[in-house]
Every structure is written in C-alpha cells, then in structure tokens.
Amino acid sequence: MSMPKKVRIVEVGPRDGLQNEATPISADTKIELIHKLSEAGHCYIESGSFVNPKWVPQMAGSEAVFEGIQKKTGVEYAALTPNMKGYERALASGADEVAIFAAASEAFSQKNTNCSIAESMERFAPIIEAAKRDGLKVRGYVSCVVGCPYEGDIDPEKVAEIAEKLIEAGCYEVSLGDTIGVGTPASVKTMLNAVLKKIPAEKLAVHLHDTYGQALANIYASLELGIAVVDSSVAGLGGCPYAKGASGNVASEDVVYMLNGLGIDTGVNLDKLIQAGDFICKAIDRDNGSKTAKALLAKCEG
Ligand SMILES: CC(C)(COP(=O)([O-])OP(=O)([O-])OC[C@H]1O[C@@H](n2cnc3c(N)ncnc32)[C@H](O)[C@@H]1OP(=O)([O-])[O-])[C@@H](O)C(=O)NCCC(=O)NCCSC(=O)C[C@@](C)(O)CC(=O)[O-]
Questions:
Q1: Is 116's C-beta closer than 6 angstroms to any atom of ligand 1?
Q2: Does the interface predicted TM-score (ipTM) exceed 0.95?
Q3: Is the pTM of this model over 0.80?
Q4: Residues classed as catalytic
Q5: NCBIfam families in the record, alphabetically (predicted)?
C-alpha cells in the first residue's frame, strides 16, 4: 500500500478541543477561531456539539456558535449529535453535517452516553434516517479503539464490528478514536488491519490523542496502510470529559508540518494555522500544545 498523496484534515479543535475547558468560552471567541481555521485552509471544521448541556456545559452555546459563523464556500461545518434531540438542534442551527459517536467499550459507552453500545446504535438509526431526508451527511466515530480507561485493552475485532455497523447504518466515513492515546504504531496497525478487512481505507479516518506522545507515529503508521483522513485539533487542544487524564488530540500544526515534510498535500497553510492556534491559546490562557507552533512562534519572536 503506497502512502496517500493528499490528506484531508478534520479539524476538531472548536469541539473536541474546547469541550473540556472548565471556564466558559464566549461564542464570539469560538466563532473567531472557526473563521481563522477556515482562513488557514481547513475544509472541514467540527464546530460544536448538541449534547446534553448538563453533561458538557462548554458546548451548551453551540447554537450561537453555528448561527454566528460566516460560512466559507467549500468548508463543511459539522456538529456532534448523540440523539434526535441533538440532531434537531444541529439542523435548526444550520450545521452542514452531523457526527454520531459510539464506543468499542461497553463501560465507556455508559460513561459517555448513558447507554449500552447496542442502545447507542438504536439511537443513531432515526438520526441517519432524518439526515438522509434533510440531505445531511453523517460521519461516525468509534471511541476507545485501542484501549479504554475502564476496560483496558480493546479487542480489534470489536472495533471492526462497531465500525462496520456504523457504515452499514449509513455513515459515509468512520473515524477511529484512540481516546486515551495509548496506542503505538504496532497496536494501531493491528487494530487498523482488523478494520480494513471489513471497510476500505477510503471510508476510514484516524482520531488520535497524544497522551503518550505516540500520535504522530501512529498517524504515519496509518498513512502506510492507506488512511488519508486525519482528525486533529489546533494547538493540541482537548481531552475527553469521560476519559480522565486524556490529553488533547494530536496538534493540527504538527500534523501539517509532518505531512508537508512528506510532500503530502493538505491544503492548509501552516503559518495561518499557527496564528489560529496562537489566538485561541491567548484567548483562553492555555499553553500551546503544538511543538511546531511553539518552535516557529519562538523563531518569529527571536
Ligand atoms: C447521550 C446523552 C444525551 C444521554 O443523556 P441522558 O441524560 O441519558 O438523556 P435523557 O434522554 O435521559 O434526557 C435527560 C435530559 O437531557 C435532555 N437532553 C437529552 N439529550 C439532549 C440533547 N442532545 N440536547 C439537549 N438536551 C438534551 C433531555 O431533554 C432531558 O431533559 P429534562 O427532561 O431532564 O429537562 C448524554 O449522555 C450526552 O449528552 N452525552 C454526550 C457526552 C459528550 O458529549 N462526550 C464528549 C463527546 S464524545 C468524544 O469526545 C469522543 C470523540 C468523538 O471525540 C472520539 C474519541 O476521542 O474517542
């Protein structure tokens, strides 16, 4: 399998990156971040989530965020929707596409969505049906594809089974989430090889948290298996509220720097992306989690 020549980056910073921040962030700040990300060339921005606001208070204002976005042609502004209530909110707010999220671990499914894996699939069916009717695409997530904070190691066959169910249900793509970042190139490849027996690489994405510093190596391993969609978060923002200690997603700047070096096209301008990351880190008083951004910002200042 040859490395892809092009990679689509799914920017999850405004959603996955910010959902765990304890201090409320204004809709205006989130909107400005989204505008800067689109100016940097991102063509897919997960801009918020329509979940129970008691569970994730930081995402409570997602209506205001979607309503304030000045949409750029060619950019998909997506929202996470756990159930029909979330879907209706996303539709009313003008989201271009929705994402449903399942887990490969029963314990994580309960903690994250208050239901079993099978029940979560039942909840997704009407969302997919409604989205088809409304002309919205549906992306699927599987969390805990390598390890779970409650159950430990996860069987790759289980991941393949859940991912296949999401594709059969109507998702156009499934993003495989190493929620707690425990994977290494070996375990990620083992997991991907199990999934690839059931789903072609064109329908898969990787969503890798950098908790153990393995994310870039794991992305490289995924590229070697033909995966050409990578989720990442500007400035490495993030963590999952139901996965204690999970650090952010891999930083978008680090991914773009690596892909530029490999001669793989992303359509993203690294300098503008770094400015977007610097903006949000200053706005929420947070350390920048991208090594590339830190190095290049220091070079500019020096
Ligand atoms: C799934 C539920 C909703 C079940 O939550 P529940 O409490 O079991 O829901 P319920 O159906 O029993 O309803 C309880 C109340 O919540 C309301 N409610 C119910 N749904 C909604 C909604 N959509 N929007 C607004 N309100 C809602 C509902 O109307 C009701 O209100 P009340 O009658 O008490 O006034 C909840 O567990 C939930 O919101 N979970 C989401 C948690 C979350 O957002 N986690 C982070 C995202 S996943 C992630 O980060 C991983 C990922 C994707 O990035 C990949 C990776 O890294 O692995």
A1: no
A2: yes
A3: yes
A4: 240
A5: PRK05692.1 (NF004283)
